Amino acid sequence: MTINPQRFLADLHTLRSFGASGVGKGVVRPAYSAVEIASRRWLASRMQEAGLEVRFDALGNLFGLAGEKSLLVGSHSDSQPEGGWLDGALGVIAGLEIARASKEAGGPPISVVSFQDEEGRFGVLTGSDVWTGRMALADADRLTDTEGQTLRSARQRMKEGGGKSVTTDLFTGFLEMHIEQGPVLDESSDRIGVVTNIVGIRNVKVTVKGRQNHAGTTPMHLRRDAFQALVALNARLNEEFSKIVTPATVWTVGHVDVHPNASSVVPGRVSFSLQWRDADKARLQAMEEIVRQTCTEIAQACGVAVEMEPVMGIDPVAMDVRVQAALEQASEDLAPGQWRQMPSGALHDAANVAPVLPTGMLFVPSIGGISHAFDEDTDEEDLVLGLEVLARAAEAL
Fold it and tell me: How far is residue 243 from each of residues 249, 273, 305, 352, measured CA to CA in Å?
């Protein structure tokens, strides 16, 4: 096949125009938003123009099919609330260009996918969760975003959803190209990362219920301040986690909702998200036990109630040895001495697909190691090199 770098970059920039933030190359394209749905319709039109069979499944995952027993290449095209132009989108447009180039050359069938809600507006890798059978659609429909909207109500905006299902047995394997989203490649002389494994993740929503009261007249020793309980909980978790984690383990208090969020009111309720990631399943479980025990202890110490919703997540997963070898050979052919094996500290749809299909991932550098931000970027030369490596590996596979 002969890939077309200019066509690839043009499509990548067109996709960026859907939800362009006006700040740098940033995008605001959350799953199931009007602009995100519009971007899927545009992607579907490009797939159709490439001679692929367009199919949306019930959740809104978008496939461009080249036939049975094809290699599947892709990623996702939704964004974080303040996202970058390459996160996910790069893998989808790379898949489109490779599928298109192979079809033009009369080569082997290569299909493309854009999974829905990878960024977790409603869950964790929701689109590939449902597609691979890790979660039933009925269970996914009950998931809610931070504003309380259900996934079911959100996906009903997509008239294309609910079509004929796409089963995993149509494909021989899965490839996903992504920006690294970290500093390793950017701080080295390497231009390509071949992923060996993807870390596991756990995510939970916690609600602290105290007593809302007057901020001027309630003595400190009588307060049941939900926010102060959160502060104490966070400090205790940092202390307890430090006893069992490695330098590669990470954890984050991300979304915080304080009620009533007023200057003169002692907060009566705080909800927050807690997420932790590690490459070892046993350590992830040990951290969950610490979270549960710490919540109990802080509730007693602060006179509040602490409620945990069910913990969601995915276990660590290794990439397929044969697929990894094809990516390594292509990297050595096209970027000799400028590639490395590396784990992924970020979660990707490949983590869900790996248990059901032979799967591999390829990274290109992120300038400054920045992602999930408007100033996320990668040199176009590195984008094209990544595409060339991925295309060569796809041909070999």
Answer: 12, 22, 26, 30
Between CA 176 and CA 75 the distance in angstroms is 6
Cα–Cα distance list, 376 to 125, 295, 387 (Å): 21, 36, 18
Determine the Cα–Cα distance for residues 311 and 275; give it in Å rounded to an integer. 9
- Encode pLDDT of 185-244 as tens digits: 999 999 999 999 999 999 999 999 999 999 999 999 999 999 999 999 999 999 999 999
Calpha distance 226→74 (Å, rounded): 43
Give the chain as a 3 state SS string.
Answer: CCCCHHHHHHHHHHHHCCCECCCCCCECCCCCCHHHHHHHHHHHHHHHHCCCEEEECCCCCEEEECCCCEEEEEEECCCCCCECCCCCHHHHHHHHHHHHHHHHCCCCCEEEEEECCCCCCCCCCHHHHHHCCCCCHHHHHCCECCCCCEHHHHHCCCCCCCCCCCCHHHEEEEEEEEECCCCCCCCCCCCEEEEEEECEEEEEEEEEECCCEECCCCCHHHCCCHHHHHHHHHHHHHHHHCCCCCCCCEEEEEEEEEECCCCCEECCEEEEEEEEEECCHHHHHHHHHHHHHHHHHHHHHHCCEEEECCCEEECCEECCHHHHHHHHHHHHHHCCCCEEEEEECCCCHHHHHCCCCCEEEEEECCHHHCCCCCCCCCCHHHHHHHHHHHHHHHHHC
Burial-class residue 295 by CB neighbours within 10 Å (0-12, 13-18, 19+).
buried
Of 260, 258, 284, give the one whose Cα is nearest residue 272.
258
> Do residues 387 and 94 make contact, with C-beta atoms less than 8 angstroms apart?
yes
Flag whether pLDDT at 159 surpasses 90: no
Give the residues across from 192 on adjacent strands: 339
Is pLDDT at 161 greater than 70 in this prediction? no
How much is the pTM?
0.87
List of residues 6+ apart from 252 with CB closer than 8 A: 274, 275, 276
